[in-house]
Design a protein that fits this description.
This protein is of the alpha/beta class. Among the domains are: about 55 residues, Arc Repressor Mutant, subunit A (Orthogonal Bundle), CATH 1.10.10; about 100 residues, D-Maltodextrin-Binding Protein, domain 2 (3-Layer(aba) Sandwich). It is about 35% helix and about 25% strand. Strands 6, 7, 8, 11, 12, 13, 14, 15 and 16 form a 9-stranded mixed beta sheet that branches. Strands 1-3-2 form a 3-stranded antiparallel beta sheet. Helix 1 crosses helix 2. The radius of gyration is 20 Å and the shape is globular. The termini are far apart. About 40% of the residues are buried.
Length: about 325
């Protein structure tokens, strides 16, 4: 690509490791120059590069790394900071647009708080929570031994620390296949068919762990799956790869599948998408505000407007570890 090339919102989201909706918000706020070609948003690559260069971290006089932006936080920068240099910083880890909406609501209600976003998968998010690199982690990790979501992983990855597991939503996950499902893919054992090649998610993502756990409990050898080591960084990227004919099957949530032409979605199961907060942090008013926000009717209505979520338990504390 050359510097004059224009990028779509999806292209920019993948470069910055943020969600597509965050890209739209950045253009709306004037942080990134954008323009329309027909009905589609376009952003020049050189403007994205200028943005990245302007957001790089610098060392202060005391040799402590200081982050220079409020939002979004680029993933590489997060590895250089602890939970927050400033007690007024909140870092929320996860990739779903629900978290972008939550961050916006908290900023509106507490304008003295910086709400930052880390675009990492569930496994890495819990690891960072345990190591005080972030404040809150989202999680959707299926455990093959219990046939349940999240609790077992929170106990293993955040050991010895009492955490609240608060529901955000339920989402359908399943196979992404070419339109009409020409290879008749309906179950996990179909992945080892000789004429099947898959597009996988990265290690640490909820979908990758779901796949690996399902392979384990069904005694399927991953080495028999063509394309197992081909990884994409988002549901949308997997869906687009299948639509382009780069593979016969991928796995992701239904919401992303509905945004891509040329593929069908074959439901596997319903996943639980939760937020994990350390119980000891509830002494800080900001965490109480976050929970109240999630439990509010206003927040529920806004998430309902996005479509694709079952909100029957939104805001409920489903478990405590």
């Amino acid at each position: 690509m050359n510097n004059e090339e224009s990028l779509t919102a999806v292209d920019v989201a993948e470069l910055l490791k943020i969600t597509k909706n965050t890209v739209y918000e950045m253009v709306k706020r004037g942080e990134l120059p954008g323009y329309k070609v027909g009905k589609k948003l376009r952003i020049d690559k050189k403007d994205v590069e200028n943005y990245i260069n302007s957001q790089k971290v610098a060392k202060g006089s005391n040799n402590q790394i200081k982050i220079l932006i409020d939002e979004p936080v680029i993933e590489e920068n997060l590895s250089n900071i602890k939970k927050a240099e400033n007690s007024n910083d909140i870092i929320i880890s996860g990739q779903d647009v629900i978290l972008d909406v939550l961050a916006e609501k908290i900023r509106e209600k507490a304008n003295d708080i910086r709400v930052l976003r880390s675009n990492t998968g569930s496994y890495s998010g819990l690891y960072d929570l345990y190591n005080d690199k972030i404040s809150i982690s989202s999680v959707h990790l299926w455990d093959g031994d219990t046939n349940e979501y999240n609790t077992a992983f929170v106990r293993k990855l955040v050991p010895g620390i009492s955490c609240l597991i608060i529901n955000l939503a339920y989402r359908n996950v399943g196979f992404y296949v070419p339109k009409g499902n020409p290879n008749k893919i309906t179950n996990w054992k179909d992945l080892i068919k000789q004429d099947i090649s898959m597009i996988n998610r990265e290690k640490g993502s909820g979908i990758r762990i779901l796949l690996d756990e399902k392979l384990r409990v069904n005694n399927i050898n991953r080495e028999q799956i063509k394309g197992y080591n081909i990884e994409k960084q988002s549901h949308s990227a997997v869906a687009r790869s299948i639509a382009r004919g780069e593979g016969n099957v991928g796995i992701g949530n239904e919401k992303a599948a509905n945004q891509v032409d040329g593929i069908d979605f074959i439901k596997i199961q319903e996943e639980r998408y939760d937020l994990v907060i350390k119980e000891s942090d509830l002494k800080y008013p900001i965490y109480q505000l976050i929970i109240r926000t999630i439990q509010s009717e206003e927040f529920k209505r806004e998430i309902e407007s996005l479509g694709g979520y079952d909100l029957k338990d939104i805001g409920k504390i489903l478990d405590k570890t």
